[in-house]
Amino acid sequence: MPEITDQNPEASDRKPAAQGQPQSGIRHFTDLIVWQKAFDLGLRVFEKSKSWPHEERFALTDQVRRCSRAVSTNIAEAWGKRRYEAHFVSKLSDSDTELLETENWLLYAKAHGYLASTDFDTMHALMRKIGRMLGSMMKKPGPFLLRAAHPGS
């Protein structure tokens, strides 16, 4: 699978949108590739953290699960705020921040021996893809905004 560095709202593999829908084929936040990758990250973190020590339950385990899930959650919230560019970008920025927090907690898990280096490397590569996609969306939010939010449209 080729590396995806940007969410393309004009994806050619999408069916034509229904009348009144954006022509991009992206009708819901779950259609966003970046959300799909972020959701996958949250699932992976949950699965890997199941075996961590019980004494980490209210510290490392809960924290990494919360912030890893918040990455996709903030993307979903950004989708709901796409009427206003600043609100949309702000929620994407929150998602990016949660992504960095996830990375930090996973570094602790790796350092304590709870997470194998190969598992960390796999999740880290996924986090870097997500981060690049979020950065691209924040830099050029226009295609993701509702038409009414575009000046002059």
Describe the structure.
This protein is mainly α and 153 residues long. The protein has four helices and no strands. The chain is 59% helix and 0% strand. The chain is elongated, with a radius of gyration of 17 Å. The longest helix is centred in the middle third of the chain and has 27 residues, at 85-111. The chain has a single domain (30-145), classed as 23S rRNA-intervening sequence (de novo design (two linked rop proteins)), CATH 1.20.1440.
The helix/strand order is HHHH
The total count of helices amounts to: 4
CATH-derived architecture: Up-down Bundle
Number of strands: 0
- State the distance separating the first and last CA atoms: 36 Å
Q: What's the multimeric state?
A: single chain
Using the CA coordinates, give the radius of gyration.
17 Å
Task: Briefly say what this structure is.
By secondary structure, the protein is an all-alpha fold.
Provide the fold topology.
Blueprint lengths: L32 H17 L7 H24 L4 H27 L5 H23 L14
Helix pairs in contact: 1-2, 1-4, 2-3, 3-4
